[in-house]
Amino acid sequence: MTSLVVRGASILGGDTADIHVVDGVIVGVGAISEKADRTIDAAGLIALPGLVDLHTHLREPGGEASETILSGSRAAAAGGFTAVHAMANTSPVADTATLVERVFDQGVAAGFVEVRPIGAVTRNLDGEQLADIGAMAHSRARVTVFSDDGKCVGDSLLMRRALEYVSTFGGVIAQHAQDPRLTLGAQMNEGSVSAELGLQGWPAVAEDAIIARDVLLAESVGARLHVCHVSTAGAVEVVRWAKRRGIDVTAEVTPHHLLLSDENVRGYSPLFKVNPPLRTSEDVEALRAGVADGTIDVIATDHAPHSASAKDCTWADAAFGMVGLESALSLVHATLVNPGHVTWDGVARLLSTTPARIGRVEGYEHPLTTGSLANITLVDPSFLGEWGVDRLVGRSHNTPFGGLELPGRVMSTIFRGTETVIDGRIVDELRTA
Amino acid sequence: MKHLISTRDLSRAEAIGLLDTTADMVEVRGRDVKKLPTLRGKTVANVFFEDSTRTRLSFEAAALALSADVSTLTAQGSSVSKGESLKDTLQTLEAMGADYIVLRHSHSGVAATVATSGWTDAHVINAGDGTHEHPTQALLDAFTMRSRLSGATARGAGLDGANVVIVGDIAHSRVARSNVWLLNTLGASVTLAAPKTLLPKDVTEWGVSTSLTLDEALDGDPDVVMTLRIQKERMSSGYFPSESEYSRFWGMTSDRSARLKDTAIVMHPGPMNRGLEIAGDVADSARSTVTEQVRNGVAARMAVLYTLTGVQS
Predict the structure, then answer these.
(1) A340: pLDDT strictly greater than 50
(2) Which CATH number fits domain B7-134+294-312: 3.40.50.1370, 2.40.110.10, 3.40.50.720, 1.10.3720.10?
(3) Which of B192, B196, B211, B257 could bridge across to B217 with cysteines, CB 3.0–4.6 Å?
């Protein structure tokens, strides 16, 4: 029996209590008098349930130069996460039971977070033939989220079939909403900045129109739909309309789309090149409002590691994406908590409870209560400091936030009762194997 | 001014200074001895990742006229086509001691990236980057306009009150962008004429007027009509249906030329599609400044090299 007590944390930003953990399960919350093997002084810290990311690129297999399941798991733990969903666009693509089981097993071996593989919707992400969806759902990895992320399931008939087939197994499609034809050669948000910079525009309608089509398809076949990284005001409006209509849709937004806009692209720094592109400041405001009123259900990082050479180049040659696991909570703190859009229990909902529910991840149903799995993140809300690559523990350093003053710091992450982050530092050589 | 990346960065004083220096260089070019010693012992590297014979020749002539050593790298047959990265190419040129890098690239923003990347300490001159900017073209165009409207010896003058129409593929034109920013700075009023498919999505912040046809733009009695080269592949991409339709609504035809006031000029950055964006007889008429633009191009590029040198010494 191993035991641990967290002393004096503000539970979800509210009352202060101790949390008693025995063998990976929370056995008491309140005034705990029992002695434990280990005690964490959490005075001044906020206790959140372990964070759950619905959208992580771990790059393994195939992209180990930029991230591995182990290095990405460490980055996740450093960011306060205890579960991540590993996107399917690896090489080879995660489109069979064998591949998702391999990712799952390596996640277990890494031991920092629960790695939940996402299965491809279509074989090799080609958008032509369904992947082995049932086999992945019934594999040891128990895949529940299916996505061709990086690519959009553009064909309407195939999307309809995919929604029907995935719902047969109780899963959900996470759609990367990007009309492929409307974004041919697109480089950045279409608008006054792209017009000035001479970069091929990426119109908002290319996202909005796919989401509008997909919510109607989901309604017509009675399936569940999740929309990845919503980035436009129009998309928020479509999702809001769909929810009012009773359609079973959920939506995520990335931390970077809550902060940055296309104005950041003016210097052509490839660190700001991301898919979907950074939109206008009006879109940023609409996304924050969408989170505040519940239209957007989830914050997901879209953590997208790239090697240095993929970003130390010209804009057109650079890869799309930015790392996001380590900075996610600070950005949510800066863009949603500080301006008063959400409280800390809202953060728990956006970054843990709801993504866990969408991904059918067990143990997050009743955060920080007796009987729950001991997935706990302790945040120092008073911290304010300059963000730098020294805060990154993954393999890639493509963050655009260098030099920004950002609030909040993850001081402790507890994954099923085991500390993965202590005093703000990642615990190493914690391989459970 | 260490680099010339964008005309947007130029103050009015800097812009007029460059035009005045261009006038000086025109005068030098008219002498018996057509060279200045300004860049003796300096190296100008012309780096052309995109083919452009006329711009490359113009920059070479300008650098030679200032007594620089000139090396030219074009994408064909170089390590660039073997997959060497831009960064490696630039660092190689830096190591070889290039003082000026004249850069042409098919991607927008490359000149800015090179200037700010730390890959090189050289002066960077943007010789055209994708659909972003072509600042020396705008300078030679402005000088050509000033010479025709105010006389070749006009000094210290901008283009205040000049009414300039730019017609054609604005959306994909670096020439149009550089001209708009520079003409705004110099006090001209600009009207862009194009079908909606060839206008950038949102030009509200450009400080220009727009017309959907050339005839509508000509109703404003312009002093200058600048026609842009139209890429024929735009037709297959659905920007407009046919050459005859383009010519009908946006071509600088003889009939439209006849509508212009006597002093109005017609410009084209070259190379021209005669009969498409500009009628052959208009291109050869007294209104046309096409060859003048080429001639002034060398002087304008000399002025840029000369002005950037002033900062260094």
Answers:
(1) yes
(2) 3.40.50.1370
(3) B211
